[in-house]
Amino acid sequence: MMDKADKTTAGLRKEGGATMGDQRLSSASPEVRTPDDGALPVIDFDKFKPTRSSLRARKRKNLVMTALIVLSFLVALVPLVSVLWVSLVNGMERLNLDFLTHNMSGVVGGNPTATGGYGGILHAIIGTLEVTLGAMVISIPIGVMCAVYLVEYAHGSRLAKAISLLVDVMSGIPSIVAGLFAFSMFATLVGPGTVNGFSGSVALSLLMIPTVVKTSEDMLAVVPNDLREAAYALGVTQQRTITKIVLRTALPGIVSGTILAIARVIGETAPLLIASGFIATTNPNLFSGRMTTLPVYVYNEYSEGLAVCGPGASPGCLTDIRMQRAWAAALVLIIIVLLLNLLGRLISRIFSVQEAK
């Protein structure tokens, strides 16, 4: 009886073990349904194929998006091309060497001068370059040093927040307010009615500083911290790290931001009309006397309207000469801005290549 019971128990254990093993196998591997004949399962890939209607809908969506992108590009391109084309067509009529090498001295109405010309913009070109250069000398060091302080030293302090708020407020100041500020400052420091080219440089620097600060701050912020930490690990001081590593790395972006700031202010008219004034002759001294710039020249020629050619006028008198001079001066101003942008891109590319090496 005992032998029979042991055999029965062993059989149950064997049967139970086999059952549990089968359960473990079935739980470990996914259940695969196969056909009755034991062949491998067949996956129907046709279910995943796109239908003709879905393909047509996808093509329609792609076509619509492409059309919208191209239309947006054309809409954005139309104003730029139209301004360039109109300025080129109207400005080339009067743009010549005589126009670029003479000032408005001796020009009366629409009559030609003794040399046969009709006046020029030499004094305005010199004034624009000198006033803009003065604004750059003032604004670039201040803007870059302010950005260095905000990124490298302040680290989100209250003073940094106050400076950032002040910069944001300055970026929204109307240009004529900057001109009035410069005029009143020189009237207080030098004397009432003081108008010169440097006063215009101060006015433009107030408009340039916010742009220089913001662009320089953004470029300094994206410099990897690994470069700073590696320099500190080698025992380099913070000042030398900033001048030799951080600023050199961010220099292409800083130059681009500076060019944008110059392009922002080189066409300003209101502050220069108040702070620098207008003069028909060439004044090379930035710190003494009135100085004409190209935007003020364009405004003055346009505001005077058509010239009068009376009975005693010269046979070569032109009634629309002022508008011709205004368009030609505007074209020269556009060319200067384009050259500045090309110069900025060239400088950025040169410094970027040196960094890569």
TrEMBL record:
- The ABC transmembrane type-1 domain covers 125-344
- Which positions, given as ranges, span the membrane? 63-88, 121-151, 163-187, 245-266, 326-347
**A Gene Ontology cellular-component term:** plasma membrane
Cellular location(s): Cell membrane
Give membrane topology per the record. Answer: Multi-pass membrane protein
Q: Where is this region: Disordered?
A: 1-38
For biological process, the GO terms are: phosphate ion transmembrane transport
What family, per the record?
A: Belongs to the binding-protein-dependent transport system permease family. CysTW subfamily.
Please give the name of this protein.
Answer: Phosphate transport system permease protein PstA
Q: Which organism is it from?
A: Bifidobacterium [indicum] DSM 20214 = LMG 11587
